Amino acid sequence: MKVPLLDLKQQLKAIEKEVKDAVNDVIDSTHYIMGPKVAELEEQIAEYTGAKYATGVSSGTDALLISLMTLDVGPGDIVITTPFSFFATAGVIARLSATPVFVDIEPDTYNLSPDALSRWFGASKEKIGKVKAIIPVHLYGQCADMDPILEIAQQHNIPVIEDAAQAIGAGYPSKYGEKKAGSMGTIGCFSFFPSKNLGGMGDGGMVVTKDANIYEKLKKHRNHGANPKYYHELIGGNFRLDPIQAAILSVKLSYLDKWHSMRQGNAAYYDKNMNIKGVKTPTIVFKREYHIYNQYVISVMNRRDELREYLAKNNIGTEIYYPVPFHKQKCFQYLGYQAGDFPNSEYAAEHTLALPIYPELTTEMQDYVIEKIMTGYRV
């Protein structure tokens, strides 16, 4: 049996005609830059996430970058985030010549720890005035614990940018009512990279906010700072979302909750049947329907890489998200962090492994994955 980490061909089979019709509509319209398809998706995403405004952009990375630009982040500023995420989370901070400052993650969810964040503020009073933003990441499709993070940020009047690249549709039981990823902070950022739960057929991203002034500034930054055309109030970039991608994403959005439910069912099956000593299944902090399982990530007590090699030999796709925390990356050596500074992030990098979780995964395929982990892993 062959079990890939992700199988987009299976997803496409069910929606191929709708997708091709949507793409042909764009071709026939000759609106190849921005246009009605982008505006339509923006309205849909704003409604879906519970935000007031949405701005389509060229990638999840650019969603983060344009958000920092809109908050005027630059040299001398500090942006606090996690050391355990996709590189873009920290890379965009450094691109603007600001300083990434890391606080450790929770050992079970791998999301930014509110306690670690609180300790940083308690120990770094002389730096607080330089903090321009905080970026929590909703890793693997489960929201970070946002209420205490937002309380810390509000105490110091610091904007919060939610990196929700892996978490569109994920829920959070805020004390102010149920919320969706991206709608709780000052700004929320999404990625439509093809492997995401809501993935395009190329790059794409979205920025959401409830702040009208931020929304207007985001739109200017997206298009070289121009408003109107050829009149530039600020220096932005070309961060526009492709209308073909917008059309495809609008089709897929109508299936998203169904796909989430299928992923949640697959996760529940793994959880129930993967009773293997030394293998820890993902922690559900809130409730399963809040977790959208962009990835299903197990923690392996020992010899994670040997297990991965064994699964590969048995035609099972896996991935390590992420093998090197930011503070140990060569490009961030100038920040002065040392090995051991963020033990939870370092442990996660050395012990976690993502298994197939996509909606079309069959029970037989999951049984095969579980069987091979049972036969191939010993503590």
In words, what does this structure look like?
This protein folds into two domains: 8-102 and 110-253, Type I PLP-dependent aspartate aminotransferase-like (Major domain) (Aspartate Aminotransferase, domain 2), CATH 3.40.640.10; 256-376, Alpha-Beta Complex (Aspartate Aminotransferase, domain 1). With 379 residues, the chain is an alpha/beta fold. The strands form four sheets. It has a four-stranded mixed β-sheet with strand order 1-9-8-5, with helices on both faces. A three-stranded parallel β-sheet has the order 3-2-4, covered by helices on one side. Helix 1 (8-29) packs across helix 8 (243-253), helix 2 packs parallel to helix 8 (243-253) and helix 9 (256-273) packs parallel to helix 12 (363-376). It has helices at residues 8-29, 36-49, 60-70, 88-95, 114-123, 146-155, 212-222, 243-253, 256-273, 304-313, 343-351, 363-376, and strands spanning 53-57, 78-81, 99-102, 131-135, 161-163, 171-174, 177-180, 187-191, 205-209, 279-280, 296-300, 352-355. The two termini are 25 Å apart. The model has no long low-confidence stretch (mean pLDDT 97).
